[in-house]
Fold each of these.
Amino acid sequence: MKVIIVGSGKTLYFLCRNFNAKGYEVVIINRNREECVQMARQLSATVVCGDGSDSAILQDAGATEADALLAITPNDQDNLIICQLASLQFRVPRAVALANDPDNTEIFEKLGVSAFSTTQIVGSLIEQSASLEQITNFLSVGQGRVNVTEILLDAGSPVAGKHLKEIDLPENALVAVVIRDNRPIVPRGGQQLLADDRVVLITLPENHGPVLKVFTGER
Amino acid sequence: MKHNLYIVIVGCGRLGSDLANRLSNVGHSVVVIDRNETTFEDLSPGFSGFRVMGDATQVSILKEAKLKLADVFFATTHEDNVNLMVAQIAQKIFNVPHVLARVFDPKREQVFTKLGVDTICPTSVAAEMFLMAVASRAARGGKQP
């Protein structure tokens, strides 16, 4: 897997280290010569110094063979154009842009570019964990379109003692795993839920709140 | 041109302010957007349009300029990527009928023609005129002895 990352700073540094650990081939594009020298020393990545929205630079970075491209510069306009060039001109199968302005996530998607917003992700993370202390774990997958949540059922939970098939779940939600005494169970309809069970839920952002309510009661 | 058009111009530099002044003088409703307030000083005293201060890559600013109502949209900032981004937003999201973006880099111009964004590249235009001047001089017989 070959990944091109356009950007700078700590996010890029740690992302690159993460990808290296997974065995991906990483190419970094950065405009700042000094930063490029630093990164070339610290990371095992190819570093191309230049403007990522210039097709000649993308060519140098080997965009034609890249499996994915990530544009995480601090400028939304650059991230959009870089991703459009990557998919239009170089047919990179997956090009993802960081939307610094959360409003731009929707705009980018409408213009045909996959986008994510750290503000939105971090914001919702904090909101979810602050509103429900029982939520011990929370992550989002599928570019933030799917939530994986783990909640602890207390004795007052409206579903404690119920069988799964008796629970009225909203559309597009799933009880993926029940963890009881550190033993994971992949449940079927006949599975009974008990207090102190930890339940792993798959939800979508639009039904996340209502689904949690089913398991924790009013809040 | 129709008598009174609603025109939004992003970037109030030399090109943006000149366009704004001229269009306002002939009676069109003009809104200029620039993130730097001092650029508005280039607007002539006769300019009767509106000024919006802010970064046009934020949709909230474009909404403030009432882009939905615009007949014409020009992107004239000094950054190609800003122009290309806001032009696409104007065309595809706010459905502005006439959208034009200034793009300095001729390589970029080609790619974005593919995306359906109309662009004007001052670099290519100037190069064309230089070449024409040389050609007409050569046709006249070149250097006189």
Note: The first helix of chain A runs from residue 9 to 21.
Amino acid sequence: MGKSLPMDRVVEKLDGRLRDVPLGEPTFADARYAPISFDAGHFHQIPEYEGDSVLCFLDGGNMEVVSAPNFMIELTRLYFNKYRGKRRLNPNIIPQRIEFYTICCARPKGNKIIYETELVPVKDEWIELLPESVDMTFNSMDRTLMTGLQRASIDVVARSARVFAEWRLAGLLAERELEKGDILIRDGSLQTFVTNERKYANYAYKAAMENGVIFTGLSKTSTLFTSTGQPLVSAINELSATSPCSSQAWYYNPIVHIKQPDHRAEMYAVKLCPRSSYVFRFEILLDQAEKLRKEEKDLIIAALSANSKDISFPGYPYGLIDVDRFARVEMVEREAQELQFMSAASAKGVWTKIQRFIKASDAHVTLNKI
Amino acid sequence: MLMLRLTKYESAGRIVKMEVVGSIVRGKHGQIQIRQKSDADIELGDLLVVDQDDGGYSILQVYDLGYGSQISPKSLEMVSGMKVEGFAADLDFMDPTLRNYILAEVKAILNVKAGNARVPKTLPKFMRDVRHITESDLSFVTKPDNPMFLGNVRSGSKVLDVEAFLDGKKVFTHHVLIPATTGRGKSNLVKVMVWSILDNFNLGILILDPHDEYYGRHGKGLKDHPSSKQNLLYYTPKQFTGSFTPIFNLRLVKPWHFRGIVAFTDAQTEAMTVAQNNYHDDWLIAIAKGRDLPHVDPKTLAVLQRKIETTLGLYVDEDGNIQCRMQTFSDTIGESTLNDILNALESGKKVIIDTSMFTDQVELLVGSIVMHEILYRYRGFKQEGVLEEKPVVSIIVEEAPRVLSAEALTSGSNIYSDIAREGRKFQIGLTAITQLTSIIPRTVLANMNTKVILGNELAPEREAIINSAAQDLKEDDRAIASLDVGEAIVSSNFTKFAVPVQIPLFEDFIKRFNDTKPKVKIGFVG
Amino acid sequence: MFRFAHLADCHLGAWRDAKLKELNLEAFNRALDLSVKEKVNFIIISGDLFHVNIPDLGLVKTVVEKFREIREKGIEIYMVYGSHDYSPNVVSIVDILSSAGLFKKVVQAEAIEDHIRLQFLCDDDTGAKIVGLSGRSGSLEKEYFEALDINSLQDEDGFKIFVFHSAVNELKPISTASMESVPLSYLPPGFNYYAGGHIHKRVWENVKGYGVIAYPGPLFGATFTDLEDTARGERRGFYVVDFDGELVKTSKFIEIMVSEVIYKELDGEGKTAKQVEKHLLDLTTKIDASGNIVLIRVRGTLSSGRVGDIDFTQVRDLLVEKGATYVFINRVALTTEAATSVTLPGESVEEIERRLLNEVVSSFKVDSTLPPRVQKVLKERLTEQKGTELARQLLSVLKAEPLQDEKKREFENRVLQETLKVLKLEELE
């Protein structure tokens, strides 16, 4: 027998560690989450949808244009769509795509370093659609931004502008673009993490509740676990084999009671298409979910399931595929943006000054080119 | 269901309502890609228009169509497999029209502004909407002098109400090639063309008609033209009232008329010269009758005699008179046939010679006789300085490779290739019809400045046509291959672009000229 | 076996010169005498018996007497009009002679809508069936040929003769290439003999699908071109044809030579007037003019001197002294460098007239301000061949001379009426 390759040894070791374990039970580190034991009876078949509610999906994307240890410029793009059944609808009031630059700069304040953020929309009239800059001034040692004990990096701060803008846009959609009974789905959960983020989430929730728009979120990925270390979502998927609706589209609920003020959601696991092998975490705004009857929740999920029958990715809402494509800022745009920045800086005669700061952190770029 | 998206586009004060059929998405000069609107129909050969900000517009032509998709090819194949195999009954494409579409490859052929059309040197604006061409977009096309009708301008398979004409004088003197495979409508085209110029006295046309299909002995033909009595001469060996008999006196035939048509050895050629020196105009009669030729080997004379007899169908009867099996040559009559034909051509009339009963060689020889003499006359006119007052003369020859192919020209030129090469100087042209363009030398093809291209399935033929066209047709290979019967592309030095046309069916075309006079009782005197 | 004589293009009265006129008449008389001698059953004259439609009455008298002589011998004469001896506008002498029973016009036509049906005349003696079409000036008989009801002609049995006065494209000699003609296909097929006239050359051709097509040519000639052709060897005379009930059996050409014609050409190109004169005088010494017609054609461009400096009269007188019957020196094609002259390739008066008129007519443009209907009629009648023909007819009418004892007012009125007939003004109303 020949000498085994390094990768073979890696696989062996991993296999040794990933043992067949029982499913366990849903588990959460935060005491404000009260998990509910697994029960095959919590699986519900998603009915065929025959309604005509409007589904509105939104997402954002961002890309670094220029960065230095003490400043960053990002381009952010927000995009939403509307579907009634399979038919795409045109937006009525809100621009379908909104783009803006985030300028984040580090500044000393006393003995601290704070990060100040300013937003520059691509079109001036969009400024009122964006979050306020004052809400994006952070202490560089803000724990909601730090990784470990390290000072929060400026890019994390810059990216928070995108998150805040998504909440803001969601609120505006619920307020101005959608009607009662329409369903808003954001990409991601309804949990907020960063300082001041809750303010914008609450604005969006308030707008949704006042206008009768159902506020939901769908996460592509989940880092929740069971008590045996299994990913929660895949454990539920495994559990579904014991359910009578395992071969159908189904949802699983209840999973957990959440009393965390930064996470106002009722959580579901959903398999939106019988043919799909994907299960996603789905959340409905708790304030709304508590008032909905089961049939109404069924309808909401059924509507989402009806949008998840695109043959290119069965089981994932097509609306989210679409917003992901149009909100994404491609890498190919980065060079053009960079050049634009350099050109504008040169024209203003400030490039030399700015370049000094960039050099402090771009050695790896130069290294990569060698 | 056709959904019209009408876009009002303000362009330098001109508000244009367009039925949008697509939009420019990428490409480069000569290879622009347009994404087709889902409910639009863009065809190969379609003419599209994109408006410009300065009030002008560009005309684009579609030369290829392909599928485009936002989904990767592998996913598409998988999806297709699922559907075909019945695995995805409840699944489908969301936003089908946005994600799967047709891309049209187009080239810009003209930029038009204020009625002036130019070859484009710039690209149209990116992401600009395009629309189908309309008649008003072609308002810059004017009717030339000496108009020869070819058909209506065509966009794809749609026929526009814009007639396409060429200047007959220019076109014929610079020679015409009509390449097409069988059944594509060559004969119909020629009939339509000649009909449209039948009463134009600036154009004399000689047609060698090997299938007797142009006059209309049975059915509609050029004889039905209102001016046919005055302007059309029909020569046929078949009995037909009003026709002339194509019988040529042997004294009209000269040794050089055989050049490139019948091959003679050096000895035979020498013998012909001796015959001419001794018998002058009777040289051919002398050979046919086997008369003595001084210093000519009797064997050579015998072989020459046989060759002449076989070629011309001659024989000597028991009374010692020369007879012709094809009734085409005679030593007693037909003295003025050639003169009549030449005078007719010189008067701008049209002459059809029914060669369906002739052998190939006799057909070409007859053409050679006429064209040699017309060339001789026109050389004289040029020397006298009156050439420009004379009509242009063109000969229409089918199966042109018989006289224009490299193989035909290996042993030397013939009158047809001479005309192709230098006839222009004397206002004499050649219109060659062929299925095999590829075997005609490029030097000859290059002189044929107008090509009326009909459908052709053979790739080498299309390549030869494209390589010698007046415009850049390298993207039109597919379009040429897909030309239907009656569809053509006119590529000429005298058109601003390669014009796609629909040639009307001759029988339909002539209806507009219906000149049925009521039967009038003849007043007879004498 | 039966026999007939076929004559054509006698052009009696053609010449101005009395001697030539006389020779022409002599040829005619000789032809008829020879026909009698050949014991023909009938005589066919294929048009242009006279040179004009109303010839000199003295000449007419002579012809009448000759015809009567022939008729009294039991020989029938069949005739068609030619392009010269007929006019659609006035009664021609041929009509009068025909009415007098001196000969029979074979054209008996019935116009049925757009067709013409010809009625056969049957010769009592031989049973030959004869039919024909007359010639018209400018070959206007073409439209009659086009309209012929061929089927009715083909259906007829027996020995059939078609008499006509037209050139046929396929048969006309090269020297007559510019002559108006009809295509062979216009002749009704299936006749045994086609008795042609109009071409002043001898043609005898047995054409497949037809039969014998023959032109005897003139007996003497009506133009100097004819005489030049005679000098070059063209035989003058008429055909005598033997036939039975079905076919032409034999034929022969009876030559008539009333006078020999000598023809000489002199090239004056680059010579002085004096040199040309000297050459001409030298030529007279070499010509055996006695009893002959002498024709000399001088052409070229003189290097110096004028055409008028050459004493043609002296040349002519010398030849007459030597016994020439008639002398004609054609110097139309002789010019000087300085002179601007119109080149007229035609030689005969008619040809020159026709060409000049063609040139004038071709430059005529209809006034576009006129009403469209009038423009259309004017275009149809005053342009191209019809315009030329109308001009010729008018010229012919207007150059008529008063008849004997015709008063001036009567002459004027006659000319006016004939002019109005030619113009057909009533069609414009």
Note: DSSP finds twelve helices and 18 strands in chain C.
